[in-house]
From TrEMBL, chain A:
<keyword id="KW-0547">Nucleotide-binding</keyword>
<dbReference type="Pfam" id="PF00899">
    <property type="entry name" value="ThiF"/>
</dbReference>
<dbReference type="GO" id="GO:0008641">
    <property type="term" value="F:ubiquitin-like modifier activating enzyme activity"/>
</dbReference>
<dbReference type="GO" id="GO:0005829">
    <property type="term" value="C:cytosol"/>
</dbReference>
<dbReference type="GO" id="GO:0008146">
    <property type="term" value="F:sulfotransferase activity"/>
</dbReference>
<comment type="function">
    <text>Catalyzes the adenylation by ATP of the carboxyl group of the C-terminal glycine of sulfur carrier protein MoaD.</text>
</comment>
<dbReference type="GO" id="GO:0061605">
    <property type="term" value="F:molybdopterin-synthase adenylyltransferase activity"/>
</dbReference>
<comment type="similarity">
    <text>Belongs to the HesA/MoeB/ThiF family.</text>
</comment>
<dbReference type="InterPro" id="IPR035985">
    <property type="entry name" value="Ubiquitin-activating_enz"/>
</dbReference>
UniProtKB/TrEMBL annotation, chain B:
<dbReference type="InterPro" id="IPR010035">
    <property type="entry name" value="Thi_S"/>
</dbReference>
<dbReference type="InterPro" id="IPR016155">
    <property type="entry name" value="Mopterin_synth/thiamin_S_b"/>
</dbReference>
<dbReference type="Pfam" id="PF02597">
    <property type="entry name" value="ThiS"/>
</dbReference>
<dbReference type="InterPro" id="IPR012675">
    <property type="entry name" value="Beta-grasp_dom_sf"/>
</dbReference>
<dbReference type="InterPro" id="IPR003749">
    <property type="entry name" value="ThiS/MoaD-like"/>
</dbReference>
<protein>
    <submittedName>
        <fullName>Sulfur carrier protein ThiS</fullName>
    </submittedName>
</protein>
């Protein structure tokens, strides 16, 4: 594949970087990233990855745009209310960059569909809003050997980490099991400051781009936490947990299953 | 006893040994039932909180679930 004149122009600020160059831009154009969740985190992730020229971007979400989303889900506009989020997202991504192929999955991830969904991608990004999906994404990526970025936000706080299966600790190394349903408030119950997913999602998109480029150090073995109120980032190093139920010495999770106890009504598609 | 708790120094006034379980109360840690505790770089089993002593100079991190993102 050779960059066209239009591409050299469009990506010129990337190509100027010695860590990217024409070679790196080609890697991005040949790269495939799956974004699970087209909401707060997914919005900046999808916009930036499309703008960056990541050649194939999958986006999965079963939901429709609601007016309460617009305070932070910047990929959806007021006239999109009622439209499937993945369609709304695809329209903006292709408007930013027609170079990019956008594949939409208008469904919730489940143990039944996730392995097939992630199989064709180089990197996966968790932009979901519930623990059932977060644990399922971790398990599918660890079992499938697929690197991924975890992200979570609530109120004024966020956290993110990157998992390189086989090399770095995973989400279950820190949190072996999901909390019981409704034990931890969700954004729809407890609120979220609208700019928060912009900060966290942009970090997650950066990880995907660095992974595709093969440049820099990924956010592995470290949980990055962000407090918007205190305007403070902290990095908490952690090791692989030998007792981790999926990547430890004696794993008890060897096949994918849905964490039914952590599911909310909305995960079940009602 | 001086500890580093979530990156900040903290002094605990206590007689004798303090377990991680007791520390959760002494520091009035929120979400006690669900918080993950990392002691000197190791993630602890919830079952071992009562039997894990905290010592002067230890580094403790409390890690919380954060589930939002899409809705």
């Amino acid at each position: 594949m050779k960059l066209t004149e239009d591409q050299i122009n469009r990506y010129s600020r990337h190509i100027l970087l010695k860590e990217v160059g024409g070679k790196g831009q080609k890697k991005l154009l040949e790269g495939k990233v799956l974004i699970i969740g087209a909401g707060g985190l997914g919005s900046p992730i999808a916009l930036y990855l499309a703008a960056a020229g990541v050649g194939t971007i999958g986006i999965a979400d079963a939901d429709d745009v609601d007016v309460t989303n617009l305070q932070r889900q910047v990929i959806h506009f007021t006239p999109d209310v009622g439209k499937p989020k993945v369609i709304s997202a695809k329209e903006k991504m292709q408007a930013i960059n027609p170079d990019v192929e956008v594949r939409t999955y208008q469904e919730w991830v489940s143990a039944a569909n996730i392995a097939d969904m992630i199989a064709d991608y180089d990197f996966v990004i968790d932009g979901t809003d519930n623990f059932a999906a977060k644990f399922l994404i971790n398990d599918a990526c660890v079992l499938g050997g697929k690197p991924y970025s975890h992200g979570g936000i609530l109120q004024f706080d966020g956290q993110t980490m990157t998992v390189a299966p086989g090399q770095s600790p995973c989400y279950r190394c820190i949190f072996p099991e999901p909390p019981p349903k409704d034990a931890i408030p969700s954004c729809s119950q407890a609120g979220v400051i609208g700019v928060l997913p912009g900060v966290l999602g942009t970090i997650q998109a950066t990880e995907a781009i660095k992974y595709l480029l093969g440049q820099g150090d990924l956010l592995t073995g470290r949980l990055l936490t962000y407090s918007a109120l205190r305007m403070r980032f902290r990095e908490i190093p952690f090791r692989k947990n030998p007792k981790c139920p999926i990547c430890g010495e004696h794993p008890t999770i060897t096949t994918l299953k849905d964490e039914l106890d952590a599911m909310t009504v909305c995960d079940l598609g009602h | 006893m001086n500890l580093t708790v979530n990156g900040k120094s903290a002094t605990i006034e206590a007689q004798g040994n303090v377990s991680v379980l007791q520390l959760l109360d002494l520091l009035n840690v929120s979400q006690k039932e669900y918080v993950t505790v990392e002691l000197n770089g190791d993630i602890l089993d919830r079952e071992s909180f009562a039997a894990s002593p905290v010592q002067d100079g230890d580094t403790v991190e409390f890690l919380y679930f954060m589930g939002g993102g899409a809705l």
